[in-house]
Amino acid sequence: DFQANHDGLTGLFNYNKFKDILSKEIRRDKRYGNDLSVIAFDINNLENKPLDDEILKKTSEIVLNNIREFDSIGRWDDFNFLIILPQTKIDGAQYVSEKIKTNILKNKLFVDNKLNVSFGITVLNKEDNIETIIKRVKSSLDEAKKRGNNCINCS
Fold first, then answer.
1. Per-residue pLDDT tens over the stretch 78-99
2. Which one of 6, 37, 117, 124 has the minimum C-beta count within 10 Å?
3. Among 28, 82, 78, 88, which Cα is nearest to 55's?
């Protein structure tokens, strides 16, 4: 069961398990009127780096040390991650993103390999479903990448 739900390299939830968790959080937060934020982030310039596996493992460790135990993180593809922040407004998600960004960028692996990160953030709207919120957070991440290195974009 662990292998079916987790990324083999990082131990984080895989994209399918992440979507299951997000779907449940959306239903819960709509039912109880709670806030829900989602963060997408990407490690830029990681392609073809000799230590890319180590960098991905270190990134996972840094994020897990900077989120709450009831938040969830998943790896959605090679260098992209998604974080679910239940009961969190946009300003809280910005704070978490800044904290993660700061800790990633001061890590020796990132400094030595001249890497940077981009973050997109969105919050649950009344009319959202899993597809719309994922599409919006990915779009927010794309906008952050367009704005330059180490940007955080909210939508």
1. 889 999 999 999 999 999 999 9
2. 6
3. 78
Using alpha carbons, select from 81, 31, 34, 37 the residue that is nearest to residue 56: 81
Question: What is d(CA 73, CA 152) in angstroms, rounded to the nearest whole number?
Answer: 17
- Looking at the DSSP bridge assignments, the partners of residue 154 are 121
Q: Using CA atoms, how far apart are residues 96 and 79, in angstroms rounded to an integer? A: 19
How far, in Å, are 10, 47, 140 from residue 133 at the CA level?
Answer: 24, 27, 10
| Backbone conformation region of residue 129, classed left if phi is above 0, alpha if psi is from -120 to 50, else beta | beta
Give tens-digit pLDDT for 31-58.
999 999 999 999 987 776 677 889 999 9
The whole-angstrom separation of Cα 155 and Cα 153 is 7
The Cα–Cα gap between 17 and 6 comes to: 7
Pairwise CA distance, residues 137 & 145, whole Å: 12
| pTM for this prediction | 0.95
